[in-house]
Amino acid sequence: MMAFRDLLGVCIGGLTARWSRTLLIMLGPVIGVSAIVAAVGLTESAKGDLQQTLAALGDNLIRVEASGSFGTDDPVLPDDVVARVNRLATVEGATATRSISGVITTPYEAARDYYTAFPTPVLTADRYFLEVMQVSMVSGRWLNSFDSDQAARTAVIGIGLADEFGYREGNRTIKLNDRDFGVVGVVERYPLDSVFDNAVFIPMTTADREFDAGTEPDTVYVRSDPAFTLTTQDALPVAVNLGSNDEVVTSVLSDALEAEAAADSTLQIIVAAMGLLALVVGGVGIANVMSISVIQRSAEIGIRRALGHGRLVIAAQFLLESVAVGLLGGLAGALAGIGIVVLASRIAGWVHVLSPGLDLFGVVLPSHTAGIPTLYLIGVGAALATSVVAGLYPSVKASRLEPLETLRLG
Fold it and tell me: Is there a single domain that holds both residue 87 and residue 216?
């Protein structure tokens, strides 16, 4: 026990004698482990945010769009498409929209040139939109039956547009092709379709009267029974076209988010691999610096060998120094990775996941092992393994030095 304590003291002395060198060789493990922890933690946090979004909005929303396969520039659906869709037993609700082209939105006259070059989406919507999309209002109200029956010049805008125009509070007007529309409400952000965040919504009857847009929608959003989403998606084309040649395109909106999560998983693997590469490079750095240290400390090694310290003790000293560098670097890297995950998650508005379950090559690992997140144990373990391998050559090299040979080196 006393011998190990002495050896530990010599190891600490060797590391603290040159702080700058010790910190530099720790950079490899720090960067490698922090990259691994951050890559897994951030992608799992993004997945957690996705799961939270899907739990709130559901994964049973289907979009039905009129197809342009027959060469028409403005394909539309039948004007009674919502009634047709609602006849399906697995449909819980439906709402129709249409994109109105050729309408220039201007909040004030000085901005006309900008919004002419970069037009704001103008969409028609019905009174079922909020219920089907499961989105709420930030302020004001949604379009109602009175607006539709009277073809009123009322509008609801997305929160992104409201922030850009400064329309969050109070009654304001907005110009659509030089016609004043009263902004009666601001709708909350909708994660499944970012177009809504910067759009202007008006009644279908108003669009027909003011812009000669017709009363046929081009898109229908269908809320399905969650247990029959795919069945409903397959049945919708027949329900919409009733056997005609008109084609429609259907898609489940949550599929895009799930594809994004899959892409995040691929990115996780790439960044984690870069972290492992950084560990390997760091291991080479440890081996290189420790080998130089053997030469620089040859006089110390010669004196200790002359005093009776055996080869095993000398080798153990340098190997222990290498392991200490790997352990400290791994711990510092894990803490740095946690900090990156927490900070980035707060900036992105995610719920950070610091204890993700891991699936490595088909083997599912628990999120915790002995109360410690498995990811951090893997990161620190990888740093330790790298430092052990990197420290073997310098430690063996040091143990083979003879007292007389140290006079030539030193």
Answer: yes
With respect to residue 140, please indicate whether it lies within any of the assigned structural domains.
yes
Q: Does 253 map to a domain?
A: no
Considering its fold, how many domains does the chain have in total?
A: 2
Q: What gap in Å lies between CA 165 and CA 153, rounded to an integer?
A: 19
The residue among 246, 266, 297 that closes a domain is 246
Tokens, residue 210 = 């003011």
Residue 220 in this model has a pLDDT that exceeds 90? yes
Whether residue 312 contacts residue 6, with contact meaning beta carbons closer than 8 Å, is answered with: no
| Structural domain contains residue 128 | yes
Are 95 and 231 within one domain? Answer: yes
65-99 as b/e: b if 16+ CB within 10 A: bbeeeeeeeebbbbeebbebbeebebbbbbbbbbb
The residues, ordered by sequence, that sit 6+ positions from 70 with a Cβ below 8 Å of its Cβ are 245, 246, 247
- Alpha-carbon distance 309 to 110, whole Å? 86
CA dihedral 224, 226, 228, 234 (to 10 degrees): 50
Q: What is the pLDDT of residue 386?
A: 80
For residues 191 and 189, what is the distance between their CA atoms, to the nearest angstrom? 6
Q: For residue 59, what are the contacts with CB-CB under 8 A and spacing of at least 6? A: 226, 229, 252, 254
Domain boundary among 246, 275, 308: 246
Same domain, residue pair 304 and 378: yes
Kindly give the pairing relationship between strand 122-124 and strand 200-202.
Answer: parallel
State which residues form the domain around 178. 68-246
Q: How does pLDDT run across 302-346, given as a tens digit for each residue?
A: 777 776 677 777 777 778 888 888 888 888 888 888 888 888 888
Run of H or E residues at 117: helix 112-117
Please give the Cα distance from 156 to 403 (Å, whole number): 87
